[in-house]
Specification:
Length: about 325
Amino acid sequence: MQTMNHWQRIEAAIQGLATDRTPVAMWRHFPDEDRYVPRLVNHSIEWQQRWDFDLVKFMPSGTYGVEDWGAVSAYRGAPNGAREVVQPAVRTTDDWARIQALDVREGSYGRQNEALGAVAKALGGHVPLLQTVFSPLTTARKLSTDRLYSDLRRHPEAVEAALEVITETTIEFALQAIERGAHGVFLATQQASYRLLTAAEYERFGRRYDLRVLEALRGKARLNMLHAHGDEIMFEMLTQYPVEMLNWHDRLTEPSLAEAHRLFPGLLVGGLAEHGLLLSGSEREIQAQVHDAQRQTGGTRLMLGPGCVLPITTPAPNIQAVIDAAACARHEQALAL
């Protein structure tokens, strides 16, 4: 088969058509460096230039969405490079009322799209570029930490009033990202888990706000990916979201790639155990995991990727092993036919 470019490969894979090789995308944080626009831009460009992935998930700090409302975060050495909230903005129920509209062209929100715009210009549209956007309920959780759960059950109106503001802010940020050159968003929900909420609670406080964000992007975004973080996720509910791609910790929690292939009609993104074989496995073990992902999906509607962000110490040879195995898996499949 003739070699495809990134867009051709991704678009064919989404439709379940044959591709010249299995698409691959991996992403990582650049802790503390991501606080500064020029450094984040340089790291993002260098990462893509080094690996030539089929999709670029832009990687701002995971707490960018709460800092303009007063939350304080810090990087404390997490293996995946993520920052954590050390001082929430919502400490009492009354504090939800302090969540007021923001100008997303300013502050932390503004810096993320400024950096994304520079990366988009450098990449020249040759590869799909997604801005990382957190679901409104995920932002509410980061603003309040565990207080969210008691408040949404005891004082739901206070939480919903804040979610209205957060949702409108999220929509404005996402639309600004599209204007700056993103082709869509990587919408991350960290709350669609039965360990945290019931299905009814997520319907009320999560799903309806998620869908408003995605609806606002209809006709403006070229493709979007949904990321379901954590375990015991509400997968069947999430398969109804209007997105082209779906990513979750398939090596750690249900469903498997094989089951998900039956449930979701779009592109599955996963197959790699980022805290397992990808971090410490051999090239042969990584190749076997790639082949297993191919087998589970029949080699269609699959993009190889981590269940979440890569550990920052992921060895370069292991990343290369995935890229090599993806090409070999397709070649060997073609020979078998």
